[in-house]
Design a protein that fits this description.
By secondary structure, the chain is mainly α. It is built from 4 helices and no strands. The two termini are about 10 Å apart.
Length: about 70
């Protein structure tokens, strides 16, 4: 998403991306990533969750620029 934002896509496309992110991702990713990170059985996925949380934090900030 950040790449598309930086390319200067048309406003409608950016609003759609932001709406999708806000509706489906932004509300759930922090708790989901924390739950995976806290699991003792999720050795590999713990690292994936930490990466995902950082990635989505960057996306959140990029979408605020709109």
């Amino acid at each position: 998403m950040r790449h598309l934002i930086s390319l200067g896509s048309e406003d409608v496309s950016l609003q759609r991306q932001q709406g999708f992110f806000d509706r489906y991702i932004a509300r759930s990713y922090p708790g989901f990533c924390r739950a995976i990170s806290a699991s003792e059985k999720a050795n590999f996925y713990r690292h994936v969750a930490q990466f995902a949380e950082a990635f989505f934090a960057v996306e959140t900030e990029a979408l605020k620029v709109l």
